């Protein structure tokens, strides 16, 4: 079970995620309000802005919202424009890293000629040289700072790869370590002039991303200091400027740019964010309070950085950063909701036994008059398509048949093969508030399941919830079924989700439940075929404390006298038979007495199984496969 580092209620987390989702729907609309006809973007005034364009494009591509990825023309515009911002020098250490990292995202299959490659290499060699000699990057006569150095690192990595970046820019990491410890000291001493949350944050992000060794107490302290420095309105102080735009004034770090860049941290550190949900919510409160809709003559919408005292309208780059933060925060909430739900529903993550290959017994299934093996059906239509990425849409399975046939075992086997957690829901989950609250509780459970992906959910012994709505059925029965059927339809619209219903009473199931759109497979599970039963008996005999000749003799008795009869027995009958076999062996019976006793036991199991199977005369040959992959 994964550790949960958050004490916020599940309902609150779901509320947060829904609200974030509503805001994210505006992502493309808001950024496109800054878009020029040629596909570039402006910032404050309707003219092409190089850095705003690459920031907006990165944001749209990361969210899979932009068609610009395929635009070779736009790529050439950005690559061949002089890389400078607001009259800073060309190829400076702010504009160039931003462009290199962004163009790498934009290019995909676009061929870059040698001259274009050379331009990028020259700039990256310059960055490498500066970091080697001076450790950090800067613009103008300002001090080296962690933000520009972080940008240099990720641009270098985007072109040369992770390992080469670690080696070539090692001096930068050593310098950033000093920055981190210096900032920790500043905060400890409450040095108001020198402390800087952005220097702290960007040094921490870069060091952790490139596997620089930092002790866990230092990491925890740095996180705590950064989030403790958050203002009540959800933002952070501006602290020291990075540099000075000749035309626009001082340039500062933007808190939401830093927040979104925290997600450059390796995945193993993302669990830390769960400890700071309240801080993220304070940041989101700032977003809600400062959202500006249809401002200026161009009807632009978004957010302002408030870096410039004379500009209060939306800016494209700031808007892109906020959407990037929200998208990443949404993934934090999604994972936290998943863990909380799986914990509350007591999901099984690990299975002590290897079900598919060693425990599960295959069953012959009749589909449209053809004899098929259940394992093959499940492999062909469930496990392999999901593993190979050919099936994204949810898969619904209905297993029906007598008790003791191994229906639940198939659910566990499917979860184990897919490496997905298994949630088992039975009537007790739905009857917490009695029959009167059943529909409400069922709705609540299914609504929460909609927040889960990559999970197998077993609805065990749930026939009462989808019982036939025949004219003579009780009112409550018709109500339960009428309420549940749309819920299964909703689950079927999910992605990366498998749900299974087990029932012993197929004849009572409402026929609408097994129509396509709710269940893709409706499979009758009866006795394992006889070869499977013999195989399991042989494996069981191998484990007994008798000599090999005796083991072989007992197996031959089964094979020569009871092979056909074994084809009548259910899965759990075979398990019980093996226990009784062991007891007979321990009694030391001779072969004749052993065979007679075994014959009597197997007949009882067989008679019981046949009586049970008669109840399913209409269902044994009615298994169905409704699949379009």
Automatic annotation (TrEMBL):
Keywords: ATP-binding, Nucleotide-binding
GO MF term (any one): ATP binding
Annotated ranges, domain AAA+ ATPase: 393-530
InterPro entries in UniProt: 26S_Proteasome_ATPase (IPR050221), AAA+_ATPase (IPR003593), ATPase_AAA_core (IPR003959), P-loop_NTPase (IPR027417), Terpenoid_cyclase/PrenylTrfase (IPR008930)
Keyword Transferase: no
Family: Belongs to the AAA ATPase family.
Entry protein name: AAA+ ATPase domain-containing protein
Organism this protein belongs to: marine sediment metagenome
